[in-house]
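Annotated sample (chain length 584).
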Amino acid sequence: MVKLARFLKKYKLQVILGPIFKLTEAVFELIVPLVMAGIIDNGIAGGDDGYIYKNGAVIVLLGVCGLGFALICQYMASKASQGFGTELRRELFSHINKLSYKELDELGTSSLITRLTSDINQLQVAVAMLIRLVVRAPFLVIGATVMAFTIDVKLSMIFLAAIPLIAITLWLVTNRTIPFYRNIQKKLDKTSRITRENLIGARAVRAFAKQQHEIDRFGENADDINKTAVRAGKISALLNPATTIILNLAIVAVIWLGGFSVDSGELTQGEIIALVNYMNQILLALIVVSNLVVIFTKSAASAARVNEVLETEPSVTDSAKEDIKFNENAPAIEFDNVSFSYHDNADLALKNISFTAKRGETIGIIGGTGSGKTTLINMIPRFYDVTDGAVKVNGHDVREYPFRQLRNLIGIAPQRAALFSGSLRSNMRWGKDDISDEEIHRALNIAQAEDFVMQMPDKTDSMIMQEGKNLSGGQKQRLTIARALCRDPEILILDDSASALDYATDSHLRTAIKENCADMTVIIISQRANTVKAADKIIVMSDGEMIGMGTHRELLSSCAEYCEICLSQFSADEIEKELHDEQQ
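Output written by the structure step:
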């Protein structure tokens, strides 16, 4: 919690004045028992109605003033806590966007969502309670004890005996419940993950009639959270009875011993009532403290989770400050003996990859599932940093580039078509902020998306639902390709982004790119040999290694695995004819 205090800098006034107003209200509350003692001893015992009315009005005035100060404190606590949550949520979201793919993979999407929502909400509650009650409750306990000493030192020793017993009870409960609350927050991550998977994969769930399976899976997790929460609740539930028993025993002792003092004339009845009231004030304050213990126990777990993200440093950093001057004679892309591992000291996902791509060349990358194709192209825009070797763009190591400059050179149509809610035009602007309608239509035309976009009611102003759910798979892929082309990049990466297109559309797309983007270096990843066969250079991947490189015909005669891929997609006669043509 202390590490997150910096997010309250803008709310110093509220953090300082809020508790002051609450303390003033507590002072008024401490005065009330003394006024009550005076009414009993002087007004009621003496039959002085005027004294009773006058001091009764004082009690009402103290109550009204206390209410006013409490409301002001409540307003300041709300303003500070909500502002704190806003600042922290903004900072956390900004920090998450600075993390590289490696850290995002390790932390997990569902966990990050829970930390941005549930954990920060819990911290907001803690800040509000910090301002409203953290100072007031201890002050009431100490203040009531001090006021009791002003009435009678001997009976006040009962207060001093009760308070340590209650403090020990609070410590024991807190110490036992913190691990449970931390565990609950982790289980909430799993709830978020299951929910997210179920909603994203709703069509698959229904297609396989797995609704009940998913309901049971969610129910098991919910039951697990319930059991953990009940165990924590059972321990926390001991707090109020234990503190109440201790304080009620203390009140019995005050009344019992106070009775002897009244008989001997050392104390008045009003003073005994005042002492009982002070003991009740301590009881109420400690009940508040017990509730605060639960709140801050949960908040401590949430703060640790939020700090874990904020303290996570990205493994890929934007350390370069100045733009790089390109070497016009250098290859557009160069892989120099590149190896990569997703986790330190783990198996290599890429092993000793070396190749070059000249400006205007088309590079095809093909291989089985999990062969490292997407990992390979993720090295170019520095989504990950290489473990060994170097990746160069225009003659310079990608680590020398500022992120902005490097990624402005590259247009990517990812493996999973990702569109955002909003207009089609706003999605195209992800490629270029100030893009014109002519440039949008040119990109749509090259991506073979112009026809279906023009059939939409609002054309380029048509609304796209979240994740493009109102579009088919092929339409989404063509729009993501168009978005990449809107940037007019030097390097275009198509990561299996035409897998949902029919062969004719795929062919038209490749032809359009070749005709309209002659100066662009294009990298095409595909499972289809037909998609990459016309590439200037084809790289064949297997288990993270480059096992073949050359043109389509060269690889047919030199790379057995490429030949197997082609045989699974073309007839043997076609392959034999192409081999014969190569030999000719």
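Annotation: DSSP finds 21 helices and twelve strands in the chain.
Annotation: The radius of gyration is 36 Å.
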